TrEMBL record, chains A, B:
NCBIfam families: PRK06349.1. Pathway: Amino-acid biosynthesis; L-methionine biosynthesis via de novo pathway; L-homoserine from L-aspartate: step 3/3; Amino-acid biosynthesis; L-threonine biosynthesis; L-threonine from L-aspartate: step 3/5. This is Homoserine dehydrogenase. It comes from Sphingomonas hylomeconis. Belongs to the homoserine dehydrogenase family. The lineage of its organism: Bacteria, Pseudomonadati, Pseudomonadota, Alphaproteobacteria, Sphingomonadales. Its EC number is 1.1.1.3.
């Protein structure tokens, strides 16, 4: 057997400790599969004294995390520090410059700086891998980069944030409202104490930008992703959607076409006949549509120490086997630079829910705004809600350009009839 | 750009023609992703004159298929001839001996001769790849070999035959019986005129043996797979299962444990909460359970020219990129040789349906046989059926060793009370 692949590990949070545990627990099996052992030689984290539940005494401790890049015994640096810039980025640049492999779970850094890092990796002939950055343990980067490599991919979309899916499916199962379920998710450790990145769709947007780049052969374009979260989904939306045969899921959706690159994170109505409607809890799932293979679905745990460590070590095994190449499926210089698509031209069916005052003429006002903007209504439900006296009007439109719905909502802006903002969601087609 | 990867293509059925179409339609994209073009240089099939709907005039025609192995311009031979032995195997052996790469969709040949071919590939330093052999376009070989490579895999199972799933989900949706739906599936081209390999589970068994080998690091052991099909599933089974919260799916299930390698193809009751319960039509889906990643699901089209061609060309792109290694995830000589597990020790919940004479004492006879064999009954439903006067007794057992159920059925064998054979299915847990 050839000599082992030697790892320097930066970051010893739950995922870092998971990688240590995994490499130990499955060492013999990994050596059989990789054709050589994978061994940690040095570790670094902020706090040396913290108990992480794993024995770290046999590894060399390095105080300065970024110094791992120059560690003479390390072939590969694994970065689990996090943050789009700062020490993680410094470490990534230095590692690749030194010609060592670099494996990371850092979606923010790859979404922001992936192109630069891919170029650096190619210049140095080094591996850059980030399977764990998207959808945790699910090998979806590999699925797109390799499994679907023969296909022109028209669309990639999915449930990319486990926290949001946990909250939405709990709201669905128990008929509860967002704030209430969020509080419980926080208490259970399924949501961060500051949940903004998750519930406002930023985390999913990072992942979507990475998937889109690999699927379409375009440069990662995170600033183009329009991200919305689930804060404004109410229990009544879920109930209305269910009546109509849909479930609400926060989806990242990316499409590439003649009008440019479309990337959006937004709650969607998903038909119950679609597999994503049956993805509950913190599970992630990604769908990609290829021109020969059709629709593929990849589903599994999107977070957690075990699944994320599984993806990190899968990358290490690829490197140990010598089975790696350009990080974004093709050389960085051949990735296209696509303009953001004008979503106004995009044709979809929409769900729009208004909370309105209970008085004469409200419905006529909404209907007129829709008509004047050219929105064709497929169904409309008005329902008096309970305690607070507010009334809900939920509209499903026929397929049409998004611009028309946006114009209708613009016409209604500032109307005295509306209570709060309308909730506009797209229907997955 | 480096020089193209040059292909000799054996077999021009629907999949072969699909590969020709795909390589033409997506040529530019494939060259960007693979770092080089992929070009067909020679083709061979039984009938030169047949119209296959693609222009073959620019390729060199070779009459003797097995001569492709020695073609001086070919780097890789793609075999889409089929058959576990015969010309396909001759071609595989000759190609690998000549040090060329070999890509195939031939599940029967890999299930029977995969170990020998993997050894030959390794001796020659040549690629052997067969993503298309299992679950059509779904990159599940890659998912197990690479995506889950860090995990000890305890179980791999799934819907591996699209014809059977098409028939079962149509029986389910329309309440019809097997023979009736099979005839329609044949008329629609979803089932072969001789459907034996599909409906008796042999096709799924080939695929299962390949998946098990990669998942567990064991030699492919097709002769150990116990294969049963869906011939004896009746509409009433599907209705009873639905009442109990299950759907019936033909599953290939493989487990590796201290008692040996368990491999079985059999109709199962799948809880509606499980994603496989929502897989309908000709779709395939594979689940694998890893000790760190948990449960992963891969789903998509399991057959058809486009999806299968997608998998074949994905293999070619891996080869063009130089990203390949041992076919069964580890060197052939390190694959373990595991005994077939004694399924009697296996603990499951079972569904057993009897068709019985409508007379006094029948239920007591069945109940006594179960009791005497130590089978604990969770629920029992007796239902008079319609026209033919037969009565159904459907039993769901508590978890217990399979041996006990087998013994109960043995006690009832030859009983005058039973009409036909009992139908025994396991409940996916």
């Amino acid at each position: 057997m050839t000599k082992p692949l030697r790892i320097a590990l930066a970051g010893l949070g739950t995922v870092g400790a998971g990688v240590v545990r995994l490499l130990e627990a499955n060492a013999a099996l990994i050596a059989r599969r990789a054709g050589r052992g994978i061994e940690i030689v040095a570790i670094s984290a902020r706090d040396r004294s913290k108990d992480r539940g794993v024995d770290l005494s046999r590894f060399e401790w390095v105080d300065d995390t970024t110094a791992l890049a120059a560690h003479p015994d390390a072939d590969v640096v694994v970065e689990l520090v996090g943050g789009s810039d700062g020490p993680a980025l410094t470490l990534a640049r230095a590692t690749l410059k030194a010609g060592k492999g670099f494996v990371t779970a850092n979606k923010a850094m790859i979404a922001h700086h992936g192109l630069e890092l891919a170029r650096a990796a190619e210049s140095a002939g080094a591996a850059l891998k980030f399977e764990a950055a998207v959808a945790g343990g699910i090998p979806v980067i590999k699925g797109l980069r390799e499994g679907m490599a023969a296909n022109e991919i028209a669309r990639v979309y999915g449930i990319l944030n486990g926290t949001c899916n946990f909250i939405l499916s709990k709201m669905e199962a128990e008929g509860r409202d967002f704030a209430d379920v969020l509080a419980e998710a926080q208490a259970l450790g399924f949501a961060e104490s500051d949940p903004t990145f998750d519930i406002d769709g930023v985390d999913a947007a990072h992942k979507l930008a990475i998937l889109a780049s690999i699927a379409f052969g375009t440069q990662p374009a995170f600033p183009q992703v329009v991200a919305n979260g689930i804060r404004h989904v109410i229990a009544a939306d879920i109930a209305e959607a269910a009546q109509l045969g849909y479930r609400i899921r926060l989806l990242g959706v990316a499409e590439d076409g003649p009008h440019g690159l479309f990337q959006r994170v937004h709650p969607h109505l998903v038909p119950v006949s679609h597999p994503l409607a049956h993805v509950t809890g913190a599970t992630n799932a990604v769908v990609a549509e290829g021109n020969f293979v059709g629709r593929l679905l990849f589903q599994g745990a999107g977070a957690g120490d075990g699944p994320t460590a599984s993806a990190v070590v899968a990358d290490l095994i690829d490197i140990a086997r010598g089975e790696f190449g350009p990080a974004f499926a093709m050389p960085a210089d051949s990735l296209g630079e696509h303009q953001a698509a004008d979503s106004g031209e995009r044709r979809t069916r929409s769900y729009v829910r208004f909370t309105v005052e209970d008085r004469v003429g409200v419905l006529a006002e909404i209907a007129a705004a829709m008509r004047d903007a050219g929105v064709s209504i497929e169904s409309l439900i008005q329902r008096g809600s309970g305690a607070d006296g507010a009334v809900l009007v939920a509209i499903v439109t026929h397929e049409g350009p998004e611009r028309a719905v946006a114009q209708a909502l613009e016409r209604l802006r500032g109307s005295q009839s509306l209570v709060g903002q309308p909730m506009w969601m797209h229907i997955l087609g």
